[in-house]
Amino acid sequence: MFSERMKNLSPYVPGEQPRNRKFVKLNTNENPYPPSPDVQELLKGFDAGKLRLYPDPLFTDLRQVIADRYHIDPKQVFVGNGSDEVLAFAFYAFFDSINGDLLFPEHTYSFYPVYCDFHGINYKKLPLKGDFSIDLSGFLASGKTSGVIFPNPNAPTGMLIELAAIEELMEKLPKDRVVLIDEAYIDFGGESAVSLIGRFKNLLVVKTYSKSLSLAGIRIGFAMGDEKLIDALFAVKDSFNSYPADVLSLAIAEIAMKDVAYYDGITERIIKSRETLTRELAALGWEVLPSKANFVFARKEGLDGREIYDRLREEGFLVRHFNTDGIRDFVRITIGTEEMTEGLTRKIKEIF
Ligand SMILES: *Cc1c(COP(=O)(O)O)cnc(C)c1O
Fold first, then answer.
1. Which residues contact 7 (CB under 8 A, 6 or more apart)?
2. pLDDT tens string 126-155
3. Is 210 close to ligand 1, i.e. is its CB under 6 Å away?
4. What is the pLDDT of residue 237?
């Protein structure tokens, strides 16, 4: 009944999406603020007749909007059903085992090894430095490689690599293998590497609507890179599903990306709350890694991460814990609204 391939799958486990109980949900890095009000307006007036036809398989309009926003050519943009799908296509298009292992940090987005297993790609996890930052020299010292992937800022640590260091890394890495930078969290305080795609034809930058644009529900992600890389992603898409992004989601994505002022505003609030939470936790004796994302990764000496997770859950606060060697004592806490963050700090003071 089942294929051998299916029997060998080891799927990614997403953070809990609670259905019954009301939690303060700080476990999957969703944005606590609504998307641009223009999205609400669009939905009010949306003509259902537009759903009769298939969507544009080339995503022409959205690619133009993204290209305008990032000062690149629409030919340098690919769109997919969430950046998870863009990543899955990129793994298929660029990485294999013939050229060596795919390299990524030991503690990083746990979907990467899942895609590797799915596509039959060998990989090597490179240890983080003592301060939990990514060790870029590891990417250079690993010999023959099929490519490099890492999120910037990294997840679940939240730690950022500065653009100058990325540029230096790109100069040193082989030009014939793809370097994929997953910028799911870059808008919360980092500088995008998209400015380098003209110079480095092997650089692919992937972004998502799910975090800073507050649209995890529509499932839109995109990649930016040299036209040849983008063409390869289209070839993979059209070998799998010609229409991964629907008419309504594409329309929402177009209108949202244009409302820069609104998103700058909510991003500013999230950054402020992040700094407040970091300060408050530090004052209570917690260690908080320096984060440039919409979450913090924190631990308290003498407490196990699972225990923190359990006790907060009992009190109605959902955070994320990874049962993984090396980071077991940490919890990852998404930055919520000011009220959510205050409530959490109060509760932590009370129970720990
Ligand atoms: C959230 C996240 C994604 C997935 O984004 P979607 O567009 O919702 O699929 C990709 N990479 C990292 C590092 C993430 O944290």
1. none
2. 999 999 999 999 999 877 899 999 999 999
3. yes
4. 98
Q: Is the CB of 82 under 6 A from ligand 1?
A: yes
Q: Is residue 221 in contact with ligand 1, taking CB distance under 6 Å? A: yes
- The structure tokens listed for 277 are 């939470």
Q: Which of 298, 252, 255 is nearest to 274 (CA)?
A: 298
pTM across the whole model: 0.97
> In angstroms, what is the span from residue 337 Cα to ligand 1's centroid?
20
Chain centroid, CA 47 distance in Å: 32
Residues 6+ apart with CB under 8 A from 1: none
Task: Give me 63's structure tokens.
Answer: 């690619």
- Bridge-based pairing state of the strands 286-288 and 295-300: antiparallel
CB contact set of 4 (below 8 Å; sequence gap of 6+): none
Using the Cα atoms of residue 79, residue 80, residue 82 and residue 83 in order, give the sign of their dihedral: negative
Indicate the helix (H) or strand (E) that contains 40.
helix 37-44
Q: What is the pLDDT of residue 16?
A: 79
DSSP string, 264-284: HHHHHHHHHHHHHHHHHHHHT
